[in-house]
Amino acid sequence: MKFDKFDREILRVLQKDATVSMAELSQKVGLSHTPCWRRVKRMEAEGIIKQKVTILDNKKLNLGVSVFIYVTLKNHDGESLNDFEASVQSIDEIVECHTTSGDKDYLLKVIVESIEEYEHLLKSKLTNLPLVDHLSSTFALKQVKNTTELPIKNI
């Protein structure tokens, strides 16, 4: 899909506030209502705009401990990888799971209330994930940057 300046501006505005009305959006990007609406609908249909969500403040919800966990598996065949990936889906505290290059297989991001809660999660669920050989946990001390906005200036 080709993007022009209006498409990019629509995406910028929606990334900052997905609750903006179509009238406000069209005014902010400099288009009339109908062409703006058509562009948004096209980007939704093409999967560029995947969903509109509400972003919660984890600290205000008493979920202030973020842990990054490198995972190394015992086996690397397709079935083992699929089993591991399917199993992480059922653990709510795992908010992100990425395959990685190098000597580690996965990087997990876990958000919990406390270190004690993480210890319980580690012992009761994480060490029991299929084919886990090694887990290496790192606790985030301070979040320096947090954005859900993609750098769309060059699309």
Class of secondary structure makeup: alpha+beta
Based on DSSP secondary structure assignment, what is the total number of beta strands?
Answer: 4
Major beta sheet summary: 4 strands, antiparallel
CATH superfamily of the largest domain: Lrp/AsnC effector binding domain/regulation of amino acid metabolism (RAM) domain
Plain-language structure description:
Pfam families: AsnC_trans_reg, HTH_24. Keywords: DNA-binding, Transcription, Transcription regulation. Residues 3-64 form the HTH asnC-type domain. InterPro entries: ArsR-like_HTH, AsnC-type_HTH_dom, Dimeric_a/b-barrel, Tscrpt_reg_AsnC-like, Tscrpt_reg_AsnC/Lrp_C, Tscrpt_reg_HTH_AsnC-type_CS, WH-like_DNA-bd_sf, WH_DNA-bd_sf. By secondary structure, the chain is α+β, with helices and mostly antiparallel strands. It folds into two domains: 5-45, Winged helix-like DNA-binding domain superfamily/Winged helix DNA-binding domain (Arc Repressor Mutant, subunit A), CATH 1.10.10.10; 65-139, 2-Layer Sandwich (Alpha-Beta Plaits), CATH 3.30.70. 35% of the residues lie in helices and 19% in strands. The chain has five helices and four strands. It has a four-stranded antiparallel β-sheet with strand order 2-3-1-4. Helix 2 packs across helix 3. The model has no long low-confidence stretch (mean pLDDT 93).
What is the structure about, briefly put?
By secondary structure, the protein is of the alpha+beta class. The protein contains five helices and four strands; from the N terminus they run αααβαββαβ.
